[in-house]
Automatic annotation (TrEMBL):
<feature type="domain" description="VWFA">
    <location>
        <begin position="221"/>
        <end position="393"/>
    </location>
</feature>
<dbReference type="GO" id="GO:0005581">
    <property type="term" value="C:collagen trimer"/>
</dbReference>
<keyword id="KW-0272">Extracellular matrix</keyword>
<dbReference type="GO" id="GO:0030020">
    <property type="term" value="F:extracellular matrix structural constituent conferring tensile strength"/>
</dbReference>
<dbReference type="InterPro" id="IPR052229">
    <property type="entry name" value="Collagen-VI/PIF"/>
</dbReference>
<keyword id="KW-0964">Secreted</keyword>
<keyword id="KW-0732">Signal</keyword>
<feature type="domain" description="VWFA">
    <location>
        <begin position="21"/>
        <end position="193"/>
    </location>
</feature>
<dbReference type="GO" id="GO:0007155">
    <property type="term" value="P:cell adhesion"/>
</dbReference>
<keyword id="KW-0176">Collagen</keyword>
<dbReference type="InterPro" id="IPR002035">
    <property type="entry name" value="VWF_A"/>
</dbReference>
<protein>
    <recommendedName>
        <fullName>VWFA domain-containing protein</fullName>
    </recommendedName>
</protein>
<keyword id="KW-0677">Repeat</keyword>
<feature type="domain" description="VWFA">
    <location>
        <begin position="421"/>
        <end position="593"/>
    </location>
</feature>
<dbReference type="Pfam" id="PF00092">
    <property type="entry name" value="VWA"/>
</dbReference>
<keyword id="KW-0130">Cell adhesion</keyword>
<dbReference type="InterPro" id="IPR036465">
    <property type="entry name" value="vWFA_dom_sf"/>
</dbReference>
Length: 622
């Protein structure tokens, strides 16, 4: 179990150093013709309050009716005056019907992108301010969810003609939706919007620690999953009292801790969701009224999958997309009759911290596989002894800090031994036959510089042309000699065409996984080194984005036959793309690549505290 006493240090950036990417999406349909000047003035006043520059706040404006139209992108202007001049010159677009769903999808696919100036992969907050004067003619739910999954914080502002429920569904959460009787009243909500934007916490850059704006309080989403099968009938009152005592120690409120309780046997049953009750008394009343479910057999795998798909969701009150820790406390009194592995892995990949508590009838190995980490497992001989482990569990749950978001880069943790999971993806197509020995030698030289052990650096090699082929996984070998022997024996694969997109997706789905040796869920940096000698025959964008969203740092190295823009899109950032005239010149970029890879900071794990420079002295004292 983690220590009961954990110090979480954070710093606040001065206002001048904050960064935000802010997109305004304006309803330009026929119904807002008379209101458009007020909307335009609102944007102007908001921009005047931002700190606009290339390395600070960036702004984009999009107008829509039947179709969307970008007036300018996030990287079009880097000066405030240029943006204000363009905003003052905006003209009402006109048109009908009002397709808000299509407009949301448009900004998701065309504006919140690196090529349009979005810095989401650098951890810069992505904000969308929607002004809509009517009900949408198309469906808004799918594109709104897609934006939220991308990490975009959506603020919706409507008038009396708008659909308030639609705006709430679009917005990041219902409280982010505001209404005015007429857009002429926008000044009345301007300060509220700006205050919300101003308190968005700023992620760390690749070289600085995560920073948190003052006032951001600890919040947790806690789900209790209780074994209600026939075998726990006698132990259920003790389980219910345990949940009650845990809830009494939590800080329950809509914007603090939230709680859900699920009971299962053959089938799962939700007693209440994370957003059902917002007061401690209501939750305690719900817990006191729990009745043993009964039933057999015990399907723990199905129970885990159910909470993953139905409880840890935004519609059920989960705030995972806001970076709020997701915690599952699982109490089981027996061995599962179905497999638990897929569901447990799925919860871990979602970032859920699962604590497993079992009795003498439980399978301890099964509990360890379910739990986020073996140290998260607690056992009692009988559930009547749950009070003995309550303090230990509570201390661990309360020590969980606010984690970094899925889009924020690694955070330096000075106390961790450097570890890396490094995958080489090699172009083995027909066009690269002569260059393959040079690529193989390059991999060999780079591997020689690594500290390969099971608990240090791990290496995998994949070769591809039309299809991808794994030579060995991250957990295939645990010694440098074994890895080097295998690399020396690599043979050119051959084949065409060159499907780089499919190969990237393959390593994402089959190599950067826990079963293949990836330690991503432990916070170990995930690094992909791609060597490609030509332009891909298939699209690389979706697969490359998927790797970035997983947190993989991709380095792309190409030769004269490669497409440099394609390599930049694949790489984690354009600066991660390197090129040589021929792969025989790889030694020329080897040191540059190695220095960058070796400098990758160890990210904090979801359970480790966020460290900043202010904490260093404390570490040295302890």
């Amino acid at each position: 179990m983690p220590s009961a006493h954990v110090t979480v240090c954070s710093i606040s950036l001065p206002v001048a150093e904050r960064k935000r990417d802010v997109v305004f999406l304006l309803d330009g349909s026929d119904g807002t013709r008379s209101s458009f000047p007020a909307m335009r003035d609102f944007v102007e006043r908001m921009v005047e309050r931002l700190n606009v520059s290339e390395n600070r706040d960036r702004v984009s404006v999009v107008q829509y009716s039947r179709d969307p139209e970008a007036h300018f992108y996030l990287n079009t202007y880097s000066g405030k005056e240029d943006i204000l001049d363009t905003v003052r010159g905006l003209r009402h677009k006109g048109g009908r019907p009002l397709n808000t769903g299509a407009a949301l999808q448009y900004v998701r696919d065309n504006v919140f992108t690196a090529s349009s100036g979005s810095r989401s992969v650098e951890g810069v907050p992505q904000l969308l301010i929607l002004l809509s004067g009517g009900r949408s003619s198309d469906n808004v739910d799918t594109p709104a969810s897609s934006l939220k999954e991308l990490g975009v914080l959506i603020f919706g502002i409507g008038s009396r003609s708008s659909d308030s429920r639609e705006l709430q569904r679009i917005s990041h959460e219902p409280s982010y939706a505001l209404s005015v009787s007429d857009f002429a009243d926008l000044p009345s909500v301007q300060q509220q919007i700006f205050s919300n934007i101003d308190t968005v916490f700023v992620e760390g850059t690749s070289t600085t620690p995560t920073t948190i704006v003052e006032g951001r309080r600890q919040r947790r989403d806690v789900v209790f999953l209780l074994d209600g099968s026939d075998g726990t009938r006698n132990g259920f009152p003790a389980m219910k009292e345990f949940v009650q005592r845990m809830v009494e120690r939590l800080d329950i409120a809509e914007n603090r801790d939230r709680v859900s309780v699920v009971q299962y046997s053959r089938d799962p049953e939700v007693h209440f969701y994370l957003n059902t009750y917002m007061t401690k008394e209501d939750i305690l009343d719900g817990v006191r009224g729990l009745k043993h479910k009964g039933g057999r057999p015990l399907y723990t795998g199905a129970g885990l999958q159910y909470v993953r798909d139905n409880v840890f969701t935004a519609s059920s009150g989960s705030r995972r997309l806001e970076g709020v820790p997701q915690i599952l406390v699982f109490l089981s009194g027996g061995r599962s009759s179905d497999s638990v592995d897929a569901a447990a892995s799925s919860l871990k990949e979602l970032g859920v911290l699962t604590y497993g508590i079992g009795s003498r009838g439980s399978d301890s190995r099964e509990l360890q596989r379910i739990s986020f980490d073996p140290s998260y497992v607690l056992t009692v001989s009988d559930f009547s002894e749950l009070p003995k482990v309550q303090e230990q569990l509570l201390a661990s749950v309360q020590a969980v800090p606010i984690p970094i978001t899925p889009t924020s880069p690694p955070v330096t943790a000075v106390y961790t031994t450097p570890r890396k999971d490094v995958v080489f993806l090699l172009d083995g197509s027909d066009g690269n036959r002569n260059s393959f020995p040079a690529m193989r030698d390059f991999v060999q030289r780079v591997v020689e510089q690594f500290n390969i052990e099971a608990n240090r650096d791990r290496v995998s090699v994949v070769q591809y042309s039309r299809d991808a082929e794994v030579h060995f996984y991250l957990n295939s070998y645990t010694t440098k000699e074994d890895v080097l022997d295998r690399v020396r024996g690599l043979r050119h694969k051959g084949g065409r065409p060159l499907n780089t997109g499919a190969a990237l997706q393959y390593v994402r789905d089959n190599v950067f996984t826990a079963s293949s040796g990836s330690r991503r869920l432990e916070g170990v940096p995930q690094i992909l080194i791609l060597l490609s000698g030509g332009r891909s025959f298939d699209s690389v964008d979706t697969a490359a984005s998927s790797l970035k969203e997983l947190g993989v740092l991709t380095y792309g190295i190409g030769s004269r036959g490669s497409d440099s823009r394609e390599l930049q899109r694949i790489s984690y950032a354009p600066s991660y793309a390197l090129s040589v005239s021929d792969f025989s010149e790889l030694p020329n970029v080897q040191e540059q690549l190695l220095a960058s890879v070796q400098d990758v900071a160890m990210p904090v794990t979801p359970t480790s505290p966020t460290l900043t420079g202010m904490c260093m002295a404390e570490l040295h004292k302890s």
